[in-house]
Amino acid sequence: EKNISEAVIRRLPRYYRYLEELEEKKVERIPSSKIASALRVTASQVRQDLCSFGGFGQQGLGYNVSLLKKEIADILGLTRSYNMIIVGYGNVGAALSGYSGFSKENFKVIAAFDTDISKATPEGLTLCHIDTIEAFIEQNEVDIAVISTPKSVAQSVAERLVNAGIKKIWNCAPTELDLPENIILENTNMSASLYMLTYSRR
Question: What's the mean per-residue pLDDT of the chain?
Fold first, then answer.
């Protein structure tokens, strides 16, 4: 299997989103230079990234938008659906559970977990007590677990999820998690993203 760098993989969702926009505007073909300009990378970077997965373009004709979008969807695994659970139903957990974009992208939130199950949830979403999480994972197919707990309990929650068999975790708690190497972990720290805006390079 070809070893693709993480930097390339992280650019793929940006290409996918841009191609989605182009498809909605009925654009049929696009040159690498236009993709590069829109995403603030170089045209050679775009060609190099896409060549990592095979030749999708034609010299002088650019890329077929719908075909390239489909190819990238296949690479990213977006052609199937994924069941997600949210652990920690505070402001972030509630916001994520109510985000309609997940279902559009084939990500389905099938349950949420918290220590307080009296909180209001969107229609169709069950809020379960955290103590039932292992039994739920055993009885249901869960592809991705989202952690949106306070940072003080995020590590212990993550360990419970891993011990219950979860292999993919999206960490939205404001802390670093220490997990086995075989676990696919994606961290989203909103404060850290803001810090990148406040850091002055000039």
Answer: 91
